[in-house]
Amino acid sequence: MQSKKLKTIVDTDWFVHDRFGMFIHFGLYSLPARHEWIKNIECISEEKYDKYFKYFNPDMLDVRDWVKRAKKAGMKYAVLTTKHHEGFCLFDSKYSDYTVMNTPYGKDIVKEFVDACREVGLKVGLYHSLIDWHHPDFTIDWLHPRRNDKDAYEQNQGRDMAKYREYLFNQVREIMTNYGKIDILWFDFSYTDKNWGSLCPWEDAKDWMKGKGREDWDAENLVKMIRELQPDIIINDRTGILQDITTPEQSAIKYGVFDKETGEPLVWEACHTFSGSWGYHRDEQTWKSPTMLIQLLINIVSCGGNLIMNIGPTSRGYLDKRAESALGVYEEWMKYNDRSIYGCGKADAQFEAPEGCKLTQSNDGKRLYIHLFEYPFKKLEMANMADKVDYAQFLHDGSEILYNKMPIRPAGVLTKYAEHDETTLYFNLPEVKPDVVVPVIEVFLK
Ligand code: GLC
């Protein structure tokens, strides 16, 4: 249970309560359909990459469908890429021609997205890449698609990051001004970490090719400007300055996320993909199973975090069958079990998760949820629970779960187990696992 308010700059209560969101990565990279970093991975030239700009025309795009599916899947907020590292803008901008307005599609997709979110009742998030591999003043570094050009150093002499920063500020001001109230701003990402520098292709280029971070973005002033425009907005940590939420990515969280200096628990959101790539990837086969999807969400909430799951629409604009089916897995489970997610978080330390189970607890402390990752044979043993339970039921169908201080034998005769102790409680379960990916016992505490 979230025992105390966590330090953030703005009120994140709604975010912590809602727990579950949708990420949407959509851009020119949806055409090559083999990873949103394709320009970096294949060092694609501007000329070649412009083909995707020329043919960007999501003729089957229905942004309402995206957000309706998010809502049905139990997601409470959605975050759309306004511009990814490729530099292409899904919004109308005074400061660039490299926008959706100048493609065959010709309409402001960010506008369509914010309107659709508000129509269906989702909070609105915008992702904005600090990195820009298209802008002529963004200097070539060891992540840039031009990094292997023989004259990369010479190209950099004509590039001016001060001009890029002005562009970055101008566009962030546009998306913070022209689309109404925005609830989340999801920046991506700072990479001054020296370990990455070891990937630098040229030994003698380690300096001029080094990664970019808070100074390169003028992050302090960027955030200051945003807060003047959108006082309640939640900002993440990827400018290089932690703001309201920290964003562990594609990782298994074990205990939660804490401030490195103070050890204080932070408000955090794990971001994951259904299959590996953030942008639509036609040939990717590493799609998470239904069990992985549901256990991922439960595990993250049991550690006190949020989960944002990513979809990458096809370049025609629709969600492919794999994405639809993955969202359907969440829809089916959340329909009956969302009470163990919304308004819940890490259980009090007094509760010890039984083997093969994950716990969440309601923020008011009154309800404990036991998620059965492994289904026990006929009884679930839980230490230190005796005298704490007022009533218990399966959450999915509200059917009572009987419990005893000692396991009931078939004849109903109570048998004292040698290793039995007075604090253990036995929940008596049906022999056959209910038809639920992860069954949940809802415990009403005394
Ligand atoms: C990583 C990926 C980037 C993606 C982001 C989302 O930074 O490289 O493509 O947009 O994660 O969290």
How would you describe this structure to a colleague?
- This protein has helices at 13-18, 38-41, 46-54, 63-72, 109-120, 152-157, 161-177, 194-197, 214-217, 219-229, 290-302, 321-337; strands at residues 20-24, 77-83, 123-129, 184-188, 234-235, 269-273, 306-311, 344-345, 357-362, 367-372, 379-382, 389-394, 403-404, 425-428, 440-445.
- It has 446 residues and is an alpha/beta fold.
- It has two domains: 13-343, Glycosidases (TIM Barrel, Alpha-Beta Barrel), CATH 3.20.20.80; 357-445, Golgi alpha-mannosidase II (Immunoglobulin-like).
- The strands form three sheets. The protein has a seven-stranded parallel sheet with strand order 5-4-3-2-1-7-6. Strands 8-9-10-15-12 form a five-stranded antiparallel sheet.
- The longest helix is centred in the middle third of the chain and has 17 residues, at 161-177.
- The two termini are 16 Å apart.
- Alpha-D-glucopyranose binds at residues 25, 36-37, 188-189, 249, 271, 278.
- Alpha-D-glucopyranose (GLC) binds at residues 25, 36-37, 188-189, 249, 271, 278.
